[in-house]
Amino acid sequence: MSNINLLPWRDALKAKQQRDFWIAFGVAVLVTVVALLGVQNFYTGLQDSQHARNQFLEKEIAILDHQIGEIRKIKEQKKSLKERIALIQTLQESRNIPTKIFNDLPLISPTGVYLDSLVFKDAAISLDGKSEANYRVASLMRNIERKVWLGSPSISSIVALPSADVDLELSKFQLKFGVKLGLQNEDKEVE
Fold first, then answer.
1. Which residues form the domain of 134?
2. Is the dihedral of CA 92, 98, 102, 104 positive or negative?
C-alpha cells in the first residue's frame, strides 16, 4: 500500500508550481530579452543619429574647405593686384620727376653755382658741380630743403680747385638729396 498515493492534490500542486515556475521563468527571460532589445535599439539609434551628424559635419567641412581654398585664391589675386597697382602708382608718380627736376633746378640753383652732372637713381639725386663760394652751396641746400617734394640734402664733399685766375676760385662739390614720390606735383615751399 505504500505505492498508492492517496493524496493526488500534492502532485497537482507540485505540477502547478513547476508550471508556474517555468511560466515565470519564461516571462522573465522574455522581459529580459525585450529589455535588451530595447536598450540595443536605443543605443543603435544614438549611434545612427551620431553617424548622421558626423556625415553632415563632414559634408559641411568639405564645403568650407572648398570655400577656404577659393578665399585663398582670391587673397592671392588681391595681393597680386595690389602689387601691380603699387607698381603702376610708383611708375605714375615717378614719370614726371626728371622733367620737374630740370624745371626746378634753375630756380633752386643760386647765382655762382655751376652744375656739371646730375644722376637720378632710386628716388635719390646726386649733383656734382662747382661754386664760386661755399655759402652759395649752402644757399642751394636751403633752396632744396624749402621744396616739399625734395628730401633733405647732404653734402658729400667740397674741394677747392686750383685756378690760374686769382679773381675766380671755384670749389668742386658733391651733393645728394632724395625725391619724395607723390609730392612732386606740389609746388609749395616750406618757409
1. 97-178
2. positive
